[in-house]
Structures are given as structure tokens and as C-alpha cells.
Amino acid sequence: MDRVITSKLRSAGTELIKQAGRKILSGHFNLTKVSFPIKCMTYATIIEMIPTMCSTFPIMFNRAALTKDPVERMKCVITGTIAYFYFEKIFEKPLNPILGETFEAYGQDGSKIYMEQTCHHPPISHMYVDGPDQNYIMTGWSSYTINAGMNSATLTADGHKLIKFEDGCTIRCTNTNDLIYNIFMGTMGHQLAGSMEFHDEKNDVHATYTFGNIRRMAQDFFSGEIT
After folding, report:
1. pLDDT, tens digit, for every residue of 166-205?
2. 162 close to 168: Cβ distance less than 8 angstroms
3. Cα 205 to Cα 77: distance, rounded to the nearest angstrom
4. For residue 189, how many C-alpha atoms fall within 13 Å in the half-sphere facing its CB?
5. Could you report how far apart the first and last alpha carbons of the chain are, in Å?
6. Are residues 26 and 45 in the same domain?
7. Could you tell me if 54 and 137 lie in one domain?
8. From CA 42, how far away is CA 33, in angstroms rounded?
9. pLDDT digits (tens, 9 = 90+) for 123-182
10. Model-level pTM greater than 0.85?
């Protein structure tokens, strides 16, 4: 019996590799539609991981709520989103939530965090964060596709986050992309790519920062500006 099971697993694995190989060569390889070995997965689903990643938000968002200076508030929000990436960068792939799956948690400031998986293909996760004393409310959604090449994979993110403060100010920000390189050859690396944009419509304040591939700078260097 063990030999039969082992043979079936090998056969399934060989077929999966063949399918992946054909899609890579065709240039249309979206990893969100390919079954992953469980050894490559982390222990939690995406909607469980997002609140963990958001654990730094309450510190900076409460501070942002206390200031009336729109530029200083923008700086606080930007700082919170940069700190977010420390928890986000992992090599293991999160488990895919089932459609309609929900998750609830509390932030370290007592904020209430609600998550729901609202679409399966493409995977879309919605969030709602209710800050303490109505200091802030954050809503948003995220979706992603993962396209693989011969020795790298690019995660392209879609969606946004909207932070609303008690005085009526709102700051909208986009998501960044990821690049995983040297998957089969060389030292594997994981870095952010692209730009993240912020917009405070009420006070007409804009901001952006850009990661990766900045000439003559280290890979973890980023630059930005507030206008």
C-alpha cells in the first residue's frame, strides 16, 4: 500500500512540474492558480497574516489622530506603512482562505480588526479596523497575482487602504509589489518593488515612496517625497 501511495504522489508531482514548466515557458504562469506543496506554506491564511502585519499601525495611527498638521499626519501614516513591511516579508506562502472565511482580532491599542475573504479567483481580502475612541477607522482590500519566470517570481498587488480620522480627514494609500529572485540558482532574496502612493484629498497633500532598483543604491534603499 505504501508503495502505491508513494508512486501516486510521485506521478502527481511529476505532472505538476510539467504543467508549471509549460506555463513558465508560455509566459502566463500565475502561481495563485497552482497547487503548492504544504511544505512551502506558512501556518496561517492570508486573512490571519494581515492583522499580524498591521500590528504596528495603531502606534502611528493614534499619533496621527492627535496632530492637526496634515504633513505631520501624513508622515505618521507613511511610517506606519513602512513598519508594516517588517512582518510581511516571509518566504513561506500563506494558505489561501476559503470564500467567505472571516477572522477577527484586537490591535495592541484595543482596536477591533475584522477580515473577510470576499473572492477566491482572484483572491481578494477585505479589512475593517475600528480604532479606539473613534480616533481612526481603516478600511481597504487587497488582491494579488504571482507571475513566475525561470529564476524569479513577481507579486503584483492591487487594492488600497483608506484611513479616516475623527476630524474628517482621510488618507488613501496603495499597495506595493514584491520580487522574489534566485529561486533555483544563487542566494534567494525577497525585496519590495514599485511605488506606494498616499493622498489626503481634504488638505491636498500627496506623498509617494519608491523601493528597489534605484541606481547606485543598496537593494533596501527607498526614496520618497511629500508635496
Report:
1. 999 999 999 888 887 887 788 877 778 888 999 999 999 9
2. no
3. 12
4. 11
5. 68
6. no
7. yes
8. 17
9. 899 999 999 988 999 999 999 887 777 777 788 889 999 999 999 999 999 988 888 788
10. no
Same-domain pairing of 5 and 56: no
Q: Are residues 143 and 176 in the same domain?
A: yes
Measured distance CA(80)–CA(61) in Å, rounded: 7
Give the span between the Cα atoms of 55 and 141, in whole angstroms: 17
Residues 6+ apart with CB under 8 A from 194: 176, 177, 210, 211, 212
What's the number of domains the chain is made of? 2
Q: Do 129 and 213 belong together in one domain? A: yes
C-alpha cell at 200: 489626503
Q: How many CB atoms lie within 10 A of CB 6?
A: 10
The C-alpha cell that represents 187 in the structure block: 542566494
Domain span including residue 3 = 1-30
Distance CA 136, CA 133 (A): 8
Fill in the amino acid letter for 60.
M
CB 226 within 8 A of CB 206: yes
3-state secondary structure the chain: CHHHHHHHHHHHHHHHHHHHHHHHHHCCCEHHHCCCCHHHEEEEEHHHHHHHHHHHHHHHHHHHHHCCCHHHHHHHHHHHHHHHHHHHCCCCEEECCCCCCEEEEECCCCCEEEEEEEECCCCEEEEEEECHHHCEEEEEEEEEEEEECCCEEEEEEEEEEEEEECCCCEEEEECCEEEEECCCCCCCEEEEEEEEEEEECCCCEEEEEEECCCCCCCCCCEEEEEC
